[in-house]
Amino acid sequence: MSNLQNPKSTASQPPSERHDFMGAAEVFEQVLEMYRTGNLQSLVDLLAEDAVMEFPFAPSGRPRRVEGKDNIIKYNQAILGSVTITSITDVEIHRMIDPDCVVVEMIGHGTVLSTGNSYERRYVDVCYTKSGRIQLLRDYWNPQDSQISKDNGVT
């Protein structure tokens, strides 16, 4: 996925050492893979202990900010317990001058588990990393743009 090649081979290094060489684009590619597979353990390895997720357009009653690795994992467990992600398409990774920042556009597709209805939502995410770990992930989506938010309560 990434069009940048790291001159250092990290394949034989432990995951904690590999993270030091990853910029935000490489980290986010692993986040995408986590959502595709539903493997939350890989997210645990990508988050800084003091990581923050922000949802600037979250509707009333939904969190606008989730702080700390453990809380972010719980939040994502709840999402993946409500929706099965079957694919992520139209992925555009926009690298910034700062390699520890990336902007990503994408569409998530899946199924709402409680109803069997289709899930489709367009996202724009801004991800900041430090030493190959997510420090801040801002998740922009329009809760009015989907029947899911209205009919099924999934965000």
From TrEMBL:
<feature type="domain" description="SnoaL-like">
    <location>
        <begin position="29"/>
        <end position="134"/>
    </location>
</feature>
<protein>
    <submittedName>
        <fullName>Putative PhzA/B-like protein</fullName>
    </submittedName>
</protein>
<dbReference type="InterPro" id="IPR037401">
    <property type="entry name" value="SnoaL-like"/>
</dbReference>
<dbReference type="InterPro" id="IPR032710">
    <property type="entry name" value="NTF2-like_dom_sf"/>
</dbReference>
<dbReference type="Pfam" id="PF12680">
    <property type="entry name" value="SnoaL_2"/>
</dbReference>
